[in-house]
Fold this protein.
Amino acid sequence: MADSSFDDLNSFNCPVCLHLLKDPITTACGHSFCMNCITECWDQDDQKGVYSCPQCRQIFTPRPVLNRSTVLAELVEKMKREEPATENKPPLCSAESEDVECDVCIRTKLKAIKFCQMCVAFYCEYHIQTHYTSPALKRHKLVNASPHLLEQICTQHDKPLELYCCQKLICVQCALIDHQNHSIVSPATSRKQIEGQLRSNQENIQLERNQRENKVQELREAMDSHKESAKAAVEQSEAIFADRIRTMKRKREEITKMIKNQEEAEESVVKKHIDSLEQEISDLIKRHDELEQISEIEDDIHFIQKFSSLSQFQFSNLHNITVNQHLTFDEIQPILSELKSQLDDLCEQDTVRISEKVPTVHIMESQNVLTKYLPSQPKTREEFLIYSSLLTLNASSACYQLSVGDKSVSRKDKSTDYYYSRPIATYKVLCKEKLSGRCYFEVNWKGSGCSIGFSYDNISQGATTSFGSNKRSWRCDFTTVNVCEIQNGKTTNVQFVAKIGVFLDTEAGTLSFYNVSDKMTLLHRIQTTFTEPLYPGFSFEKWGNNSSVTIL
């Protein structure tokens, strides 16, 4: 509590401006103010029509008439004369941004030092004095001022939150009205329970923090690994292309040198023939001149002697020198063009595969981000299996000579079949599923052979139409001797295999058959235009008893 000198000093300070009273007046409740201060306060209350004391909040209606307190004014003047140093004393602290302001201060808001839980108000060092001196206010509960104290007041009843019920803090009035017969405990008791939850939450938060820190570390390491992998891929790409460029330059130089060597060798042989023929021409001209001179001799004996002295002239056989008028290096150009086309196709195919693979390399396996690798031109078995389709045989589409399960079918002729009138057997069966887009499946076959077919139309039991007999179906035959494609009555022979991979791409219009092994080998490809989804199926029309097919 403040000492008596402090009380004496503040008794003559205006509660509004906190300075010594000037033209003091005293209200009916007994508090004194500067004439100007109380006038300004009540001017602001004119619109409400209700006037209150700025210090004790007592209500006055109508607005009281203010008269200057002469006795009080004389006491203030006397204090000024007796204690002139009072004016030089340091002022009370004004509230800073982080401080709680006094609720009573009107002009200059001072820093609050106490909070009254009964008045539900903050008080500065000056305005709290009445709680120390007034017998009625001394019973109020004061606590140190703090910004969070207002949160401890019931917003409905303006009472302190002193009890805990239904997982929330309540005031006494809330307990009497809304929480009768409830299990109400004090905040201290509830705190013990909440502290357990708090520790559990702290442990969970620490665990979550550790997990996130580990995940951050994992992501950073993955990102670094991703960068290193990308760097290595770029370096490998540059090294491979640089090596291929060097190889292509070397091959270009070898081909150029080969052509030049051939050109020079042929020119050397031809030049030898030219030199030999030119020498013969020179000798023939010389002999022709000699004969001309002999022909001019008039003496018969001398004429005969000169002619007889000439040696027999040897000529080369021109028939042995044949010039090929059509052999030129133009025949090399188609081979070079074919080489260029093959290199272009190979580069284009592999570039497409790389461009489809690169977007699928992700650091995080997030479904929102993950791009699935779907190669448009698969080459390895793993890439084909991306388009794997689950097929089930449709027993209702098979003739009675076939033994059909969900995944396997075999030809099982019986000797009694020849003695009963049966529909003509086509020995075929379709799958239940229709295929479109890119689809892949594998089959094993045994026996003398099998046929893999595709049809736009479903085939009912007993139907006589065979795969490949019209423009709405295709069939590829596999035997122990060879493989044949039949479409629209035309046959094409292909090589033999036992395990077959079938890849359908309706958009590209291709139906491809592969030998399934460590390396996928293309056996045959049908190029056409597909306008509808297709039923895959199998036929044993050309194959012997016990031939079978199993869908893998």
Remarks:
- The CA atoms of residues 65 and 406 lie 107 Å apart.
- The longest helix spans residues 187-295.
- The two ends are 95 Å apart (CA to CA).
- Confidence is low (pLDDT under 50) at residues 1-9, 84-90, 418-423.
